[in-house]
Design brief:
The chain is of the alpha/beta class. Helices cover 34% and strands 23% of the residues. Strands 1, 2, 3, 4, 5, 6, 7, 8, 9 and 10 form a ten-stranded mixed β-sheet that branches. Helix 1 links the parallel strand 1 (2-10) and strand 2.
Length: 244
């Protein structure tokens, strides 16, 4: 039996969570435990969690992406999970297909894995990525091209996969002590995968499984709050990992 702990964080995302994350039903040797942290407090989301028997955690103060997922992990680890699935409110998987896929690949010797992304206009956005160079963010901003993305049609070991759909073995996440909570939002997934690589862990990208992601990309809107958070996290990442 594979026990999957599903970690979701809500910033007023109750509608997306109710629409995308209502069907984690155990089947075919895979069991799910779902933990949702609510950063803002919403009675509709709380009631939904009660009905679905999901763990609901209400924050007294706003926390970042990494800290919230670490908080969810602390609860999920008590359920003796084998795998942590970190997934965004606006991301969606076909649960039966995910279960079949997980049963197929479980014996593979990876520590983390990601998959192909389907965005609203049916464009495949690659989670098959190499670590960004310091000049990549500026080039991406100017050209609207992701220079660290690789061909999404090829399954392979990669440098990192995005946090919108990130699967991590329990023992690997525990060894890494989860996300670095100094990253409030953005680059915490890159940092986690880089630390995993430094520990000799394997990060895998699979092209034969896909998930949907609406991808608002708020961090790309110049001079928005999220843009400055993105810049702040980028500087922090390159400072912490200066050997590039």
């Amino acid at each position: 039996m594979i026990k999957v702990g599903v970690s979701i964080v809500s910033h007023n995302n109750q509608d997306e969570i109710i629409q995308n994350h209502a069907n984690y039903n155990s089947m075919e040797n895979v069991e799910f435990e779902v933990c949702i942290t609510d950063n803002t407090g919403n009675n509709t989301l709380k009631k939904f969690c009660e009905e679905k028997q999901y763990r609901y955690i209400l924050n007294k103060t706003t926390k970042g992406f990494g800290e919230n997922n670490n908080q969810n992990f602390k609860w999920l680890r008590e359920s003796e999970i084998n795998l942590l699935l970190i997934i965004n409110p606006d991301a969606k998987i076909d649960v039966p297909n995910y279960v079949k896929f997980l049963n197929k690949i479980w014996k593979d010797k990876w520590d983390m894995f990601g998959a192909k992304v389907i965005e609203p206009i049916n464009i495949y956005s690659s989670q098959r990525r190499k670590f960004p160079k310091i000049y990549h963010p500026l080039l991406s901003l100017l050209t609207k091209k992701k220079y660290f993305m690789l061909d999404p049609k090829i399954s392979s070991i990669v440098d990192w996969v995005g946090g919108s759909f990130l699967n991590v073995r329990f023992e690997s996440y525990k060894k890494l002590k989860g996300f670095d909570e100094r990253f409030f939002m953005y680059y915490e997934d890159v940092d986690l995968c880089r630390r995993a690589k430094n520990e000799g862990m394997t990060v895998m990208y699979y092209s034969d499984f896909s998930f949907e992601h609406s991808a608002k990309r708020a961090g790309h809107k110049i001079f928005s709050k999220y843009f400055f958070l993105n810049i702040q996290s980028m500087i922090r990442y390159f400072f912490y990992h200066s050997k590039i």
